[in-house]
Every structure is written in C-alpha cells, then in structure tokens.
Amino acid sequence: MEEERENNNNNTSKSKSKSKYWIINTLESRTFSWILIDQSNPYQSALSWLMFFILTIAVPILAHIVYQCNTCDYSHRRPFDLIVQLSLSVCSTLSFISLSSFARKYGLRRFLFLDKLSDVSVKVRDGYSDQLHRSMKLLCSFIVPCFLADSAYKIWWFSSGGNQIPYISNIYISHTLACTLLLSSWLYRTSLFYLVCVLFKLTCYLQILRLEDFAKVFEKKADVGFILMEHLAIRRTLRIISHRFRAFILSTLILVTVSQFASLLVTTETGSLVNLSTAGELALCSMTLVSGLFICLRSAAKITHKAQSVTSLAAKWHTCATIDSFDDMGTTEETPVTNTSDRANYNFSAHFDSDMDEGDEDELDNTKMVPIYRDTISYQKRQALVTYFENNRAGITVFGFMLDRTSLHTIFAIEMSLTLWLLNKTVGFS
C-alpha cells in the first residue's frame, strides 16, 4: 500500500510539473522546434537554417530589389526600406545564432535553469512557473500589435498600389503571395528578436526570486557558512547568465544605436519625403528594436540592483545585532554565545515598523529592522560577511562592465549627446 501511494505521489508530481511547463513542452514539440530552437538532429537543424535563410535573408533582399518602386507615386515609394530590412535582418540573425548556440550547448530546459529548480524552495518554483506563463503573454503582447500594424500597412500598400507595383502574370495572386511572404518574414524576424529578449528577462527573474528568498536567511538563525554558500551559488548563476548573453546584449546595443542614428540621418536630411505611408514601417521597426533593447537593459539593471541590495541588507542586519548586543554586553567586547531566548522583535523595531507605508519596498531594498539572533553569529563573523558583500558585488556584467542603473544613465547620456550632435549637423539644432 505504501509503495502504491508513493508511486501515485510521484506520478501526480510529474504530471503537475509537466502541466506547469506546458509552454516548454510545446516549444520542444515537433510543431515548433524546427522553426526556432531545436538543433537536436541534422534534419531539424537543416530545416531550421533553411527557414531562417528564406525568411531572414532571401525574402528581404528580393523584396527590396523588386518592390523599391521608384516610379510609383509618392505615397507608395519606399525610400527607407533598406534601413528597415537591414536592421531587422541583422538583429534577427544575431538572435537566431544565439538561440542555435543555446539550444546546441544546453537545451531549452537547462538554458532556463529548469533542471536547478529542485534545489530551490517551493515559493521560488511556483513564482518561476507563473513568470514563465507571463513571459509568453509578454512576448505575444509585443509581437501581435507589431504584426497587425505591419499587416495593415502592407495590405494597404499592395491593394492601393495597383499596377504601379510589379507583379507576375496575375496581379491578385502575385500581390497576395508577395504580401504573405513579406508578412511571414516580418513576423519571423521580430519573433526571433523578442524571444531572446524575453528569455533573458525570464532567467533574470528567476534570480530575483532566489535573491528574495535568500534575504530571509537574515531573519532567522543561520550560519555564516550557509549564507556565504547561498550567495556564492547566486553569484555563479549570474556570472553564467552574463557570459551567455553578453555578446547578444552588446551587439544589440550597437546595432540598435546604429540603426536609430541611420534612421534619424535619412529622415532629417534635406528633401527627405517623410509621412505615414513612407516612414511608417521605419517607425514600426524602430519601436520594435528599441523595445527589445529596453527589455534587456531593464532586466539586467533590475537584477543587478537586487543583487547589490544584499550588501545593504547584510549591513543593516549586522548593525541591528551589534546595537542590541551592546545594550546587554556591559564591558564585554565580544558578543556572548549563550542560550538566551530568541527575541525576534524589539521595542525599537516595532515602533519603527509601525510608521512604515506599505507597498513601496520589497524583500531586499527596505528600511525595516531585522530580527536579531545574536547568540548564533559572533561580531567577527558578521563583520567578515559584510566585508565580503561589500567587495564582491553581484549582478549582470557585459565583458566586465556592470549593467546597473548608473550604466543605464551613462548609456542614455551618450545616446542623447550623439542625437543632439547629429541633429545639429542635419537641421541646425542648437
């Protein structure tokens, strides 16, 4: 009977885990794996690369050559099509190469750290599962509006262009097939780019959950060695994430910057024809690339801020324990190790927390007092731990540069300076 119960429990737990990650199962299925991710066998790998070549390289090149439409009326000309096609194709190529490398080296489940979830708490596993489903919704919320907007533009362009737009044999069949291919290419390229950005956000969110769970060790009796091992494990995972995505983040930042400055240059030059019909697709392309870059930079800055908040939390924990120990120490210089009763809440702590406004703070970055268990860890150990945190700041790095809020401010300042300089050269802005 007991063996049957254990088997039933194991089966139910496996079914629950499969149901939680049904999105991963779907992406790994034969229906989707050959399109984006799977490189498990030569056949699927060749099919995946063939699809990539057709929709990312062949279709955009043919579309730019055939549908340049220099003899069309002004509303159907495409003066900025080269920048649009080149920007999307280069970013999607970078995304596809990154995805192929991830799938070949790690596999989707290992890449998303699903194999490490057995080492974390139930709260972290449930939060990660929920975030996985929200990430897929976020992916759709970015892809679907862009696709619908581009669909409306291309349907209008082909339907209103008539005989001005080149066609083969039958105008209706030719325009329908061309429109379908162009829309498929747009959807494929934007999906690749957004997918890598959302996967990066998802992996960062798992570490945020781990850090919030890690912060609770300061509220209970814990050994310095245990705290150190947990923090080292989180630092190692953050370093792995940084090494996996650093080339993608840096390349995306450079490519998006070059694309935006090229767009600004051609749209502000003298005699440039800029209206909704000619520059609408360029604006849509710019919003796509900038939003993807924003997802990456914001996720990196958020996890870095959370990781560095551990230093503040440890210093606050050390301070609270030291202040309380001095109240009872007398002339003793070291915190006594005695079997005193646990005192989780003190008068000054309760009074301080009573004036707090809830909703503006989280588990790591808050101003709440920490429960004291001074009989567990001595002053020297606490001081050594705080010193370690101060000199070993964790976070997302790109070739040694920490992606924190200061880095984002620096990037914004550089981008703004270059933008103003370019506007001064093109439209005489001062």
Structure, explained:
This protein has 430 residues and is mainly α. It has a domain at 25-304. Helices cover 72% and strands 1% of the residues. Strands 1-2 form a two-stranded antiparallel ribbon. The longest helix is centred in the last third of the chain and has 54 residues, at 276-329. It starts with a helix and ends with a helix. Residues 1-6, 8-19 and 330-360 have low confidence and may be disordered.
Name some characteristics of this structure.
disordered N terminus; 430 residues; mainly alpha; 2 strands
Major β-sheet annotation: 2 strands, antiparallel
The chain-level mean pLDDT equals 79
Beta-strand portion reads under 5%
Distance between the termini: 83 Å
Overall helicity:
over 70%
The helix/strand series, from N terminus to C terminus, equals: HHHHHHHHHHHHEEH
Work out the helix count: 13
Task: Describe the SSE topology.
Layout: H1 2-20, H2 22-28, H3 30-33, H4 42-66, H5 81-105, H6 108-111, H7 122-161, H8 171-214, H9 224-268, H10 276-329, H11 347-353, H12 379-391, E1 397-398, E2 401-402, H13 405-426
Helix pairs in contact: 4-5, 4-8, 5-8, 5-9, 5-10, 7-8, 7-10, 8-9, 8-10, 9-10, 9-13, 10-12
Pfam families: DUF3537
Transmembrane segments: 49-70, 82-103, 135-153, 165-186, 245-266, 278-297
InterPro entries: DUF3537
Quick description:
Pfam families: DUF3537. The chain is mainly alpha-helical. It has helices at residues 2-20, 22-28, 30-33, 42-66, 81-105, 108-111, 122-161, 171-214, 224-268, 276-329, 347-353, 379-391, 405-426, and strands at 397-398, 401-402.
